[in-house]
Amino acid sequence: MNLIVPQWAHSAMAMAHHQDDVRSKTLYIAGFFPTSRNIPQGAIGRGVLPAVRLALQHVNESPLFTKYRLDLVWNNTKTGLNLIAQLIVRKTIQYLFVIRMIME
């Protein structure tokens, strides 16, 4: 498959590659995605992660973003939001129980 790329795009890409050499600071973005295969939310996380990487690539190749380079540091949360919500509720109930015991 041959792609027709306009001349201005070649110039912008050349500038972006040159600017990679002069970008002095890296900004790290944290990403927390459920990517485990044993939970339904894992499919969403596995789908979102490549999109985030592609977005960072586009930003880093942009001639408009010259002083910094974005980099992603990500981790598998190994859980869906339901488990996180359950943990928050459970901890809240535990704290309320302790407060009640102290107040009596």
Structure, explained:
The structure is a single chain. The chain is of the alpha+beta class and 104 residues long. It has one domain (7-79). It is built from three helices and two strands. It has a two-stranded parallel ribbon. Helix 2 (41-61) links the parallel strand 1 (25-33) and strand 2. The longest helix has 23 residues, at 81-103. The protein is elongated, with a radius of gyration of 22 Å. The model has no long low-confidence stretch (mean pLDDT 76).
Summarize this, please?
The chain is α+β, with helices and mostly antiparallel strands and 104 residues long. It has one domain (7-79). Helix content is 58%, strand content 17%.
Describe this protein with a few key phrases.
single chain; 104 residues; alpha+beta; two-stranded parallel sheet; elongated; Peripla_BP_I; Receptor ligand binding region domain-containing protein
| Total number of strands | 2
What is the rounded distance between the termini?
76 Å
Number of helices: 3
- The 3D shape can be described as elongated
Low-confidence stretches: none
Helix content: 55-70%
| H-E order | HEHEH
**SS content category:** alpha+beta
**Rg, alpha carbons:** 22 Å
Largest sheet: 2 strands, parallel
Instruction: Give the amount of beta strand, in percent.
Output: 15-25%
Mean pLDDT: 76
